[in-house]
Write a structure and sequence with these properties.
Length: about 230
């Protein structure tokens, strides 16, 4: 192989590398909160009564010691409007969470994750709106008592159709029939934002996301290097 061919070969390799790169982006939660069917009389009616916006996102189905029945669903919204029509390689929802059981039980607690196309707000009708089941989270007891640990779940099959039909917001609903799945909330303020839920989107096409300065510099220097080589040899 002559020098000229070697140069062409390397340039092709460089461009095919850029073409096949999977760019990704990590989104913070846009809004979050949890919605309760809250019945002091002890009988749930399936109709949500109130929205809580605290540093916790609770999913549970419990009866308190005073007889109050609570069915609680956590809602997490993400703004995906910038990525309409992009081809998704994968999507992962992550965050910090734990189990809370003041009755002293040490069983693992599981929660179901659902997704749907939403409006970015946490509203009462998010409690029961039609949604797709994506999978389950499991929180196991910790030796330290209350301590948050990382979770993550593949949500690709929930995100893909929403990008295809150009949804503005992706919303997740997390439900549990146990006592209690606790997820650290996102947008409330300062410290808790750092460890709030995040959505990582990885795209088939690297052009889907504007490169960060560092990687852009790397690509640029690679291109300059290739052109330098070309100038020298041709
Ligand atoms: Ca919130
Ligand atoms: Ca109710
Ligand atoms: Ca909503």
């Amino acid at each position: 192989m002559g020098k000229k061919r070697v140069a062409v070969f390397f340039i092709i390799i460089l461009f095919s590398f850029i073409g096949s790169a999977h760019a990704f982006i990590t989104l913070d939660v846009f809004r979050d909160g949890y919605i309760e069917d809250y019945e002091p009389g002890g009988i749930l009616d399936g109709i949500p009564d109130r929205i809580q916006d605290t540093n916790a996102l609770l999913a549970s189905n419990i009866i308190l010691s005073d007889g109050t029945a609570i069915d609680s669903h956590a809602i997490l919204t993400f703004d995906i409007s910038s990525f309409a029509g992009q081809s998704l390689q994968s999507a992962t929802l992550s965050g910090l969470g734990t189990r809370v059981d003041t009755r002293g039980s040490l069983d693992a607690i599981s929660a179901s994750v659902y997704s749907y196309s939403g409006n970015g707000f946490v509203e009462l009708n998010d409690f029961t709106t039609s949604a797709d089941f994506l999978g389950s989270l499991t929180f196991t007891p910790s030796a330290q008592g209350f301590s948050l640990s990382p979770f993550q779940i593949d949500v690709t099959k929930g995100v893909n159709p929403l990008l295809n039909n150009s949804s503005q917001f992706l919303e997740f609903r997390i439900e549990s029939e146990e006592f209690t799945a606790f997820i650290n909330s996102g947008e409330i303020s300062g410290e808790s934002r750092v460890s709030g839920p995040q959505l990582m989107l990885t795209f088939v096409d690297s052009q889907a996301v504007v490169p960060e300065p560092a990687s852009f510099l790397l690509f640029s220097s690679g291109l300059l290097g290739a052109f330098g080589l070309r100038k020298k040899i041709f």
